Amino acid sequence: MSPVIGFVGTGNMGTAIIRGLTGRGSLEFCGTDLNRDKLAELKRDCGLEPLATPNDVAQRSDYIVLAVKPQHLRPVLQDMSGHLTEAKCLVSIAAGIPVARLREWSGNACPVVRVMPNTPALVGAGVSAICLDDPRLSEAQKRQVQDLFTAVGAVHVLPETLFDAFTAVVGSGPAYVFYFMEALVESAVYLGLPRTQATDMVLGLLTGSGKLAAESGEHLSVLREMVTSPAGTTIRALVHMDRQAVRAAIIDAVEASYKRSIELGK
């Protein structure tokens, strides 16, 4: 029998997972959301079965993906707890909520998986961390949850003790990349390039550089050195960044994000 994957919340990330899984195997989907138009769209495009409440999803599903805001998760789980059994599996993508809290709020009724995806999952290029620390998880459940998120990108199984570090580097990471991209576009405009072309150029720069890093097999330092000729334009820019302590500022920024992630989980 095909497993039923239920979604409590079908916002951006929930929808990305559903669309990524559509057509892969014989999975069945159901879900609930306050946005009934979104449910109707997912029914039409992906075959999702719209349901009225989170309790309906809990009763119908083998795997319940919790894709609601962290501040809404506790009442949802407490209300659902009476409909959970040991055979089901909760999968939370709510940032900052640890496994112990998820188990407590759900009455410890079933195994729990914590997942931290990032926004490139919206285009099938995400990087997700998955915590499989709950000893009640079966091997089949572990494989199924990993398959769910492999559908929208790369998956890394991590102990929960490393989730705050992952959040600081990769969960928040797209914002750092976009921030850097914005700065490059502004510098191009400052130097006279038209904004539309500058944006296209920077998009190509980041896409191409990422592809080169992924496929060349070379260390990042070697790739950087390939562009850095003696007494050339690139070394002049890199030395300026080092004088401005840009590398240290990035490390400090990620550390600040890491500390905030720890605070949110308390």
Describe what you observe in this structure.
The protein is α/β, with parallel strands linked by helices. The model has no long low-confidence stretch (mean pLDDT 94). It has twelve helices and eight strands. The protein starts with a strand and ends with a helix. The chain has helices at 12-21, 36-46, 54-60, 70-80, 99-105, 139-150, 163-171, 173-190, 195-216, 220-227, 233-243, 246-264, and strands at 4-8, 28-32, 49-50, 63-66, 89-92, 112-116, 126-131, 153-157. Strand 4, helix 4 and strand 5 (89-92) form a beta-alpha-beta unit. The chain has an eight-stranded mixed β-sheet with strand order 3-2-1-4-5-6-7-8, sandwiched between helices.
Task: Throw out a few tags for this protein.
about 270 residues; alpha/beta; 8-stranded mixed beta sheet; 12 helices; about 15% strand; elongated
Outline the biggest β-sheet. Answer: 8 strands, mixed
| Rg estimate, integer Å | 22 Å
Structural class: alpha/beta
Which residue ranges are poorly predicted, with pLDDT under 50 across at least 5 consecutive positions?
none
Report the count of strand segments: 8
Give the overall shape, derived from the CA principal axes: elongated
Sequence of strands across the biggest β-sheet: 3-2-1-4-5-6-7-8
Residues in helix, %: 40-55%
Strand content: 5-15%
H/I helix tally: 12
Order of helices and strands: EHEHEHEHEHEEHEHHHHHH
Distance between the termini: 40 Å
Q: Quick check: average pLDDT?
A: 94
